Amino acid sequence: MYLRILYIDRIGVVHDITAILAKRRINIVSMEVEKNKIYLECQSVSEQQCKECIAELSCITGIQRINEISAMPSKERAEQLDAILTSVHDGILSVNPDGLIAQYNPAAARILNLPVKKAVGKPLGAALFKNLLIQETLQTGCQYHNREVYIDGGNSYCVVSTIPLKNNDNEVVGVVALIRDTQEVRSLMNNMTASLPMTFADIPYASAVMRQVVNQARRYAASDSTILIRGETGTGKELFARALHSSSTRATAAFVPINCAAIPETLLESELFGYARGAFTGAAKGGKPGMFELANGGTLFLDEVGEVSAHLQVKLLRVLQEKRVRRVGSTKEVAVDVRIIAATNRNLEDMVADKIFREDLYYRLNVIPLLIPPLRERFEDIQLLGELFLRHFAEKLHNPVQGFSAAALQRLQDYNWPGNVRELKNIIERSVNLVDGTLVQPEHIFLGRLSGSQTAPPTVQFEKYQTLEERLAEVEVVILKETLRRFRSSRRMGAVLGLSHTAVLKKLRKYDFSLE
Questions:
Q1: Does residue 199 share a domain with residue 171?
Q2: Between 357 and which of 21, 329, 351, 422 could a Cys-Cys bridge form, CB atoms 3.0 to 4.6 Å apart?
Q3: Which residues form the PAS domain (predicted)?
Q4: In the chain, which residues have pLDDT < 50?
């Protein structure tokens, strides 16, 4: 039987209530008294006994109203608090002045690796008592906000905020600690700040060679092995790295890129591995996580990995082997689960031979090689990419340009593109800024340098005693080879060379060239 009694405050009202219940031999299990309210939890009685008891209690002087209730307020509050603590994603831990755990939710159990049933009502371990800043809060009464600390049991870092609980005399009688898993915080930040994911469907191409590369990359994405992307500058290595991540089982986790060539060597170590509190002058309070920790559970993209110094190559190799990272200035190691995608435009094999790049690190990185061909080896993509960039910049710059003239397109296709796709994009943006009409003309295209044929013409070597016909045949081979590389059709080759397609086929057969 649960009762709520509203009354006008007077001396002896509680005594009168308990006297009636005692006379009726009804045991009081618990009682809660608030201003002008008394809550009673009594033993179970029959419905008739309950009505008679309420009628007699209502006759007490000062009693205004009596209602049956379903539960005591303290129990309702406890159930509500338990539901809140269970639903909260952050860890919540409260202790009394003796260091005994008073409240402890499942999130805290997960982060601290300490089961709830083994924790409530028991002392908090000495290491956690100190590392979670609870001891310091109890002693000083100061509260801490978002301090990064190391948890031995969880073998990881977490972010802690503490609040001292004080009585009416301003004495600290307990502490509440709010605990956040740093990995979850970083995942949330990544989801809020990261750009839209890049997929293989977002990579435009028309050439057979790029189709083969994309198909290879799709297969590699399903693996968790390290990938080394090779290619000249501007070929889109980071684009492929993002697509590999988006197509992997780690797609929902963080993709963390770092350009090893853009950061000075003195800073690169702390950027990769992080640093502990007080590691050096100017270090942030609580330290700072490195890229490996930020990418934990996801993908770390090491762009321009060939620029890493010999000193850092050793540390990088150790992390790749041990799957553990140690912050600069710290003695503690943290386990990390990171997939590595590296990229470089340098010849690592030559660097290994010259003792500039560690051979063991090279083999650690070059598990799955992926070579991105330069734009000059896939001329079929130039028109597709050019039109794609043209539409993009026309919309961005509010220019009504609609396409390229035939001469402008030919100018683009005759260029060697040493800067690859990045250079093409920049040149198209410049062209859109210059054009006045609806078509880009050749005069709107400013190239870095005209290439013509990139193959040097044969020199005259009289020692070979060649006839004119033989010398002309050598030049003809060069012309056919270059034209065939750009235009995989006898009719297109004929249009360029001023020959019929049958004449082109005859010459190709003469020099054992194949269109396939």
A1: no
A2: 351
A3: 77-122
A4: 192-193, 450-456
